[in-house]
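Hi support team,

I've been running sequence recovery on a batch of backbones for a student project. Most finish fine, but this one hangs at about 90% for roughly twenty minutes before it completes. I'm not sure whether the input is malformed or the queue is just slow. I've pasted the C-alpha coordinates below so you can try to reproduce it. Let me know if you need the job ID as well.

Thanks,
M.K.
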Protein backbone atom coordinates (compact mmCIF):
# COMPACT_ATOMS: atom_id res chain seq x y z
CA UNK A 1 0.00 0.00 0.00
CA UNK A 2 2.78 2.46 0.88
CA UNK A 3 4.48 1.87 -2.45
CA UNK A 4 1.19 2.55 -4.28
CA UNK A 5 0.70 5.80 -2.38
CA UNK A 6 4.30 6.86 -3.07
CA UNK A 7 3.69 6.35 -6.81
CA UNK A 8 0.91 8.95 -6.71
CA UNK A 9 2.10 11.29 -3.95
CA UNK A 10 5.47 13.02 -3.94
CA UNK A 11 4.96 14.97 -0.70
CA UNK A 12 5.68 13.97 2.88
CA UNK A 13 4.00 10.73 3.92
CA UNK A 14 2.62 10.27 7.42
CA UNK A 15 1.10 7.00 8.61
CA UNK A 16 -1.13 6.86 11.67
CA UNK A 17 -0.80 3.77 13.82
CA UNK A 18 -2.22 2.52 17.06
CA UNK A 19 0.83 1.64 19.18
CA UNK A 20 -1.26 -0.48 21.52
CA UNK A 21 -4.88 -1.48 21.75
CA UNK A 22 -4.66 -2.13 25.50
CA UNK A 23 -5.75 -5.76 25.21
CA UNK A 24 -4.07 -9.05 26.00
CA UNK A 25 -2.62 -10.52 22.82
CA UNK A 26 -3.29 -7.31 20.90
CA UNK A 27 -1.07 -4.67 19.38
CA UNK A 28 2.11 -3.80 21.26
CA UNK A 29 4.67 -1.04 20.85
CA UNK A 30 7.33 -3.66 20.12
CA UNK A 31 5.39 -4.99 17.13
CA UNK A 32 4.70 -1.46 15.92
CA UNK A 33 8.40 -0.54 16.23
CA UNK A 34 9.15 -3.32 13.73
CA UNK A 35 6.45 -2.07 11.38
CA UNK A 36 7.67 1.51 11.76
CA UNK A 37 11.17 0.45 10.73
CA UNK A 38 9.79 -1.24 7.62
CA UNK A 39 7.67 1.82 6.80
CA UNK A 40 10.76 4.02 7.15
CA UNK A 41 12.54 1.79 4.62
CA UNK A 42 9.59 2.30 2.26
CA UNK A 43 9.89 6.07 2.52
CA UNK A 44 7.37 6.96 5.23
CA UNK A 45 8.44 10.26 6.78
CA UNK A 46 6.57 10.25 10.07
CA UNK A 47 4.55 7.91 12.26
CA UNK A 48 1.45 9.58 13.75
CA UNK A 49 1.38 7.62 17.00
CA UNK A 50 -1.97 7.03 18.65
CA UNK A 51 -3.33 4.20 20.79
CA UNK A 52 -6.55 2.30 21.25
CA UNK A 53 -9.60 2.57 19.07
CA UNK A 54 -9.37 -0.88 17.50
CA UNK A 55 -11.25 -2.82 20.19
CA UNK A 56 -13.27 -1.82 23.21
CA UNK A 57 -10.82 -1.57 26.12
CA UNK A 58 -10.46 0.48 29.28
CA UNK A 59 -7.93 3.27 28.75
CA UNK A 60 -6.46 5.33 31.56
CA UNK A 61 -6.39 8.79 30.01
CA UNK A 62 -4.46 11.73 31.43
CA UNK A 63 -2.62 14.67 29.84
CA UNK A 64 -0.04 13.28 27.41
CA UNK A 65 -0.97 9.63 28.01
CA UNK A 66 0.00 8.60 24.47
CA UNK A 67 3.28 10.54 24.28
CA UNK A 68 5.46 7.71 25.68
CA UNK A 69 4.47 5.57 22.69
CA UNK A 70 5.57 8.24 20.21
CA UNK A 71 8.80 8.62 22.19
CA UNK A 72 9.50 4.87 22.18
CA UNK A 73 8.81 4.41 18.47
CA UNK A 74 10.80 7.56 17.59
CA UNK A 75 13.87 6.39 19.45
CA UNK A 76 13.75 2.66 18.79
CA UNK A 77 12.67 2.72 15.12
CA UNK A 78 14.64 5.92 14.47
CA UNK A 79 11.79 7.55 12.60
CA UNK A 80 10.07 10.88 13.18
CA UNK A 81 6.86 10.66 15.18
CA UNK A 82 3.86 12.81 15.91
CA UNK A 83 2.40 12.82 19.41
CA UNK A 84 -1.28 12.93 20.34
CA UNK A 85 -3.36 12.29 23.43
CA UNK A 86 -4.65 15.09 25.62
CA UNK A 87 -1.93 17.56 24.74
CA UNK A 88 -3.75 20.46 26.31
CA UNK A 89 -1.48 23.47 26.43
CA UNK A 90 1.51 24.98 24.63
CA UNK A 91 3.93 24.45 27.53
CA UNK A 92 3.16 20.72 27.47
CA UNK A 93 3.54 20.61 23.67
CA UNK A 94 6.83 22.53 23.81
CA UNK A 95 8.20 20.16 26.48
CA UNK A 96 7.46 17.15 24.27
CA UNK A 97 9.28 18.73 21.32
CA UNK A 98 12.23 20.18 23.28
CA UNK A 99 12.88 16.86 25.01
CA UNK A 100 12.82 15.00 21.67
CA UNK A 101 9.89 12.84 22.69
CA UNK A 102 8.21 13.53 19.32
CA UNK A 103 8.85 15.64 16.23
CA UNK A 104 5.36 17.00 15.71
CA UNK A 105 2.32 17.64 17.88
CA UNK A 106 -1.09 16.74 16.53
CA UNK A 107 -4.04 18.53 18.12
CA UNK A 108 -7.56 17.29 17.62
CA UNK A 109 -10.08 17.87 20.35
CA UNK A 110 -8.16 20.87 21.68
CA UNK A 111 -8.68 22.65 18.34
CA UNK A 112 -12.36 21.73 18.40
CA UNK A 113 -12.65 23.27 21.86
CA UNK A 114 -10.65 26.36 20.90
CA UNK A 115 -10.02 27.07 17.22
CA UNK A 116 -7.77 29.98 18.29
CA UNK A 117 -5.46 27.65 20.25
CA UNK A 118 -2.48 28.34 17.94
CA UNK A 119 -2.76 32.09 18.55
CA UNK A 120 -3.09 31.64 22.32
CA UNK A 121 -0.12 29.23 22.25
CA UNK A 122 2.03 31.74 20.38
CA UNK A 123 1.17 34.45 22.89
CA UNK A 124 1.90 32.16 25.85
CA UNK A 125 5.25 31.09 24.35
CA UNK A 126 6.22 34.66 23.44
CA UNK A 127 6.11 34.01 19.71
CA UNK A 128 4.65 36.15 16.96
CA UNK A 129 2.57 34.59 14.22
CA UNK A 130 1.23 36.15 11.06
CA UNK A 131 -2.45 36.90 11.43
CA UNK A 132 -4.62 35.91 8.47
CA UNK A 133 -5.91 39.15 6.98
CA UNK A 134 -9.61 38.37 7.54
CA UNK A 135 -8.85 37.85 11.27
CA UNK A 136 -6.89 41.04 11.87
CA UNK A 137 -9.87 43.21 12.76
CA UNK A 138 -11.24 40.63 15.22
CA UNK A 139 -7.88 39.84 16.86
CA UNK A 140 -6.84 43.41 17.55
CA UNK A 141 -9.42 43.62 20.34
CA UNK A 142 -8.09 40.64 22.31
Amino acid sequence: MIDAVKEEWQGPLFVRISATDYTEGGLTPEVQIGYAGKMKEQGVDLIDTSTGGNVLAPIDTFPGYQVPYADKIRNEAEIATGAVGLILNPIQAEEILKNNRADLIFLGRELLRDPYWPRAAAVQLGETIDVPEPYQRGWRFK
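--
Follow-up from support: It reproduced on our side and the slowdown came from queue contention, not your input. The chain has one domain: 2-106. No action needed from you.
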